Amino acid sequence: MVHSIKKIHFMPLHKRKIAGHFFTFITIVIWSVAFVSNKALLSYISPIENMILRFTLGYLFLLLLYPKWHLPHSIKNESFFVLLGFLGIFIYFLLENFALSYTQAANVGLYMGAIPILTALFAHFISEDETLSPNLFIGFLVAIAGIGLILLEGSGYEMRLKGDLLALGAAAVFALYSAILTRAPKGYHYIEITRKSFFYAVIMMLLYYFMSGKGLDTGALAVPVVWGNILYLGILSSGLAFILWHKGIEQIGSIAASNYIYLVPLITAITGILVLDETVTLRMIGGGMLILVGLYLSQRKP
Question: What pTM does this model have?
Answer without folding.
Answer: 0.79
